[in-house]
């Protein structure tokens, strides 16, 4: 679905409400090749005109399948979020009327494309750490190899506290500065 800013401004009397199911799998995979699958995206929202311009609000719900950041096994990430954005023409240069916390999107060609707006926000919601359900439940089992293993941050802190604090290779240097003061 696409609207021009002029079309949206003509609906100033009543907000433009929408409820759609979008298939964004191919376009999201093109933008982020590591995405394995995307369920149909349920979007419900409204565009309205206010003193600042076009204001958009939407609720989004979908499931994105990505490789686990720990094991590379497929992991489903349920995304359910909402966002509010202001849309302005590319002809407008003065954005000082907006607060620092406002999200302002400058539209090229003054066309608002709902699909690309939703895609952008889905990509922003993908977490840095993605784990399968089994990995989330069994946090103690970490990958390991012949001479390496992965430890959690908690385990690392515990190991650092347990250590004497001095690397045995540098133990002889610990008294070096005391002798040099004389």
From TrEMBL:
Cited Pfam families: YceD
InterPro entries documented for this protein: YceD
Superkingdom in the source lineage: Bacteria
Name this polypeptide is given: DUF177 domain-containing protein
């Amino acid at each position: 679905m696409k609207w021009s800013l002029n079309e949206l401004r003509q609906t100033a009397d009543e907000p433009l409400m929408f409820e759609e199911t979008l298939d964004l799998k191919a376009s999201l995979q093109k933008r982020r090749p590591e995405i394995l699958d995307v369920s149909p995206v349920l979007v419900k929202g409204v565009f309205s005109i206010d003193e600042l311009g076009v204001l958009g609000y939407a609720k989004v719900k979908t499931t994105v399948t990505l490789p686990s950041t720990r094991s590379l096994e497929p992991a489903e990430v349920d995304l359910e979020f909402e966002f509010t954005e202001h849309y302005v023409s590319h002809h407008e240069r003065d954005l000082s009327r907006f607060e620092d916390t406002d999200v302002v999107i400058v539209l090229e060609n003054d066309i608002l494309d709902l699909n690309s707006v939703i895609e952008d926000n889905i990509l922003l919601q993908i977490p840095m750490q993605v784990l399968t359900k089994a990995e989330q439940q069994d946090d103690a089992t970490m990958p390991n190899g012949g001479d390496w293993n992965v430890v959690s941050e908690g385990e690392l802190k515990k190991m650092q506290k347990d250590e004497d604090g001095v690397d045995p290779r540098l133990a002889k240097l610990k008294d070096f500065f005391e002798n040099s003061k004389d």
